[in-house]
Amino acid sequence: MDSTVDPLDTQTEDVRGAALTALRGWAVRRDRLAADRADLMAAAWWAGTRTVAELARAADVSRDTVYDDLRARGVEPTDKTAEGAGALPPYAPLTAEPVRELAQHVWSLVRPAMLTERPDWATWASWHLSIALDRIGILLEDSADPDRKADAGESLLAQLAAAQEAAQRHWAELDTPHKEHLTAFRTAVPVGGEGQAVIHGVDLTLGLSGSRETSSVRFDPDPFEPAGWTAVSGDHPQLESQLTAADRLAIQTAVHTLGRLLNCRLYPDDSDGSDPAMSEPGPTVPPVRPWPSTDTQP
Question: Taking CA 112 as the corner, what is the angle to CA 35 and CA 11, rounded to the nearest 5 degrees?
Fold first, then answer.
């Protein structure tokens, strides 16, 4: 995806340009196949596959090709004194070009599935993730343009949030009882670890656009749902509507994020990022582009 072509655009000329950019990306990937194969060969070697014949069968190439690929990546396959399985490969920093090539590839796969009036939520999640990869590529560029990096960073957060919202909606529409997979989500995203603080309630004040009027919102544990799920109350009539499964997923993720942030301050020595509970996705925030109206969704 060329930085001048945004795959979110749907005008005819924009789509045509984006499609041609994706096609050119395929040509670049074709020319890189040998280098990619060598990278994969070395990765398999470092993962513990030390039999040249097995590598040759997996890649459907000759043994000589395996030798050449491994040596091109600094591996001597005949060295019997080399470290065994489990050794780490040489450090290689992430660079912009392969990430943006990956973005082009993913985008080219997802784009046909978007050419419908009603893309499903899993497709929407994939779409936003493909764009997020492109934004990561921009952030990795050797560019001195701070505005470009700032725009890419803002867009990255928005695309990840939009992908998360789509994933929540997809999960909420699974053909299983809501409480069953909501409880599964609560298990995957724990409310608080052993000895950690747990958020029991949240008070928010909403300022209504275009006026000085405000509304109060309260999040409390829902006494009628599994532990960890939240009820919403407020002094605005529209806040009294029944929560959907997707709503509960979004609230649970947001509350967990707040709890994780606060626990990092309460227990700084335990917040090194190694705890799975400390590495869950961030809160749901509005995407840069508005979602399609709900009447166009499944």
Answer: 110
SS3 annotation, the chain: CCCCCCCCCCCHHHHHHHHHHHHHHHHHHHHCHHHHHHHHHHHHHHCCCCCHHHHHHHHCCCHHHHHHHHHHCCCCCCCCCCCCCCCCCCCCCCCHHHHHHHHHHHHHHHHHHHCCCCCCHHHHHHHHHHHHHHHHHHHHCCCCCHHHHHHHHHHHHHHHHHHHHHHHHHHHCCCCCHHHHHHHHHHHCCCCCCCCCCCCCEEEEEECCCCCCEEEEEEEECCCCCCCCEEEEECCHHHHCCCCHHHHHHHHHHHHHHHHHHHHHHCHHHCCCCCHHHCCCCCCCCCCCCCCCHHHCC
Angle at 190 between CA 198 and CA 185, to 5 degrees: 135
User: How many angstroms separate the Cα of 76 from the Cα of each of 7, 38, 52, 70, 84?
Assistant: 43, 13, 11, 7, 13
Angle at 239 between CA 235 and CA 240, to 5 degrees: 90
pLDDT along the chain (298 residues), means of 10: 48 62 75 85 86 93 94 85 62 85 83 86 93 92 86 91 89 70 56 64 82 84 72 78 76 78 74 39 29 33
